[in-house]
Write a structure and sequence with these properties.
By secondary structure, the protein is of the alpha/beta class. The protein has helices spanning about 5-10, 35-50, 65-75, 90-100, 115-120, 140-145, 180-195, 210-220, 235-240, 255-260, 285-295, 365-375, 415-420, 455-465, 495-500, and strands at about 20-25, 30, 55-60, 80-85, 105-110, 125-130, 160-165, 175-180, 200-205, 225-230, 250, 275-280, 300-305, 310-315, 325-330, 335, 350-355, 380-390, 395-400, 405, 410, 425-435, 440-450, 475-480. It binds malonyl-coenzyme A (MLC) and adenosine monophosphate (AMP). Adenosine monophosphate binds next to β13, β18 and β19.
Length: about 500
Amino acid sequence: MKNNNLFAALRAAFPDDLDASAVETDNGLFYSWRDLERGTAMLANLLVSLQLPAGARIAVQVEKSVEAMMLYLATLRAGYVFLPLNTAYQSAEMAYFIANAEPSVVVCSRKNFGWVSKIAFQQGTYNVFSLDDNRSGSLLDRAAQCSDRHEVVQCKAEDLAAILYTSGTTGRSKGAMLSHGNMLSNAQVLKDYWAWKPGDVLIHALPIFHVHGLFVAIHGALINGSKMIWLSKFDPQLVVDKLPEATVFMGVPTLYVRLLAELGLTRETCRNMRLFVAGSAPLLIETFRAWQERTGHTILERYGMSETAMLTSNPYDGERRGGTVGFALPGVTLRVQGDRGQTLPAGEVGGIEVKGPNVFQGYWRMPEKTKEEFTADGYFRTGDVGKIDERGYIHIVGRSKDLIISGGYNVYPAEIEGYINDMPGVAESAVVGVPHPDFGEVGVAIVIAKPGSTLDGDAIIAALKAGLANFKIPKRCFVVNELPRNTMGKVQKNLLREQYKALFAA
Ligand code: MLC
Ligand code: AMP
């Protein structure tokens, strides 16, 4: 029987020479393909030794490291479900994810072990391990005692491989369930579409708790048997230093904006590069053009989301058009729908809906929510608004979901407003996204005090910092007397966006 385990496909692409370099880190470490094979086997055997139930979730909130990547691969290998969590999440956010996902194993940084294990124990999860980015922690101590041989677990294409939490427009985060088949189909399509070649070397500079860094970048390199230059954190100068040794780079638009500020970024430093990929947020046409002028390379912009992995891409051969996200990938069907559920012709703006082998299995334990997001004929409503131009290129022109994308991270205003509204003296608040030269977009909070209360915007921001992931904190907070409303009494966020749009003008 064919094994649809994603790890089996990645493992099959390892080069014949297992002693060749698979990963080189920014602190001078080298990992061979054999190291990846053995390390993932030991970690998989550790998970197996815990006698976890089928479909067990392995929740992981750790700093970026090659061992953390191996833990992801080991989870696939052993047939469990990986649940990556942003390191910026604080205790209330972690408590929600752990309560909602009910993981059988929790892995965290040593410095957070006290509070994370407390949350885990309260939820009945007793397998809590530590893992730090200097190859230490109880996870590795335990794995060191396990065999380095492990037979990849047999999986069906629809078996769950990962749950990615994405914030909800209302209420709490939803866990998008991705299967082995979802991710394998996407990885195979991108390998061909982006023409991965023998000898390609990827600079991996993104975090590994979201689709872009964890799936697009890691699967891309591994399924091509390609070496990764592994940066623990995005550092523009280090990326420029490494460019001459690399052929592929992937980043959110903020990474490109920051790289352009490096004088060392030249045609000469990019001489061996083959492909620059951007996505996760809109790439400004100014950045697209400045990159072309400075490096001689045309950034390839693509579009995707946690629920679907990659959906569209500009062509590898053929014109890459700035301000567009290219064409639906092979196997993906994409349509633009009008208000009455009709499919719109080229040039008209509507809701983007998609279908394909990459589209997720639904939201974790939210069948109703899942149902709402799919049409009767099986298309997933992305919540993005766009159009297809006369040449077939797809443009994302906005979002129907109330979402801010800041430096490639999603921030849901409703979540932040909820925290602000719970603060003493606050009558009401609105959080909107405004343009920002570095992060593309950032949140701004506009708050109304209760009669008789006095509020201070900076104090509100300071209070938010105590409870929320740092990237979600509005960059400014204004206390005003009233919010603009329509005749129905609904806050007109478009007017607020307009009013504050020049706040961070470059
Ligand atoms: C950091 N800060 C941010 C921020 N990142 N503020 C808004 N938005 C962000 N994204 C703030 C911190 O709160 C802090 O503020 C200050 O910046 C410095 O923090 P830092 O951690 O030192 O920041 P830095 O390392 O410079 O991080 C910036 C970044 C990072 C751009 C490198 O945000 C990043 O790696 N973004 C990539 C996200 C990503 O991978 N997205 C893919 C999602 S997948 P203070 O006030 O505390 O000093 C997806 C699907 C798809 O969307 O299609 O790919
Ligand atoms: P996430 O939930 O983090 O996976 O974010 C997915 C969202 O990011 C999509 O629904 C889009 O709104 C946005 N996105 C991803 N890629 C692009 C892109 N190239 N251009 C514009 N928006 C994008």
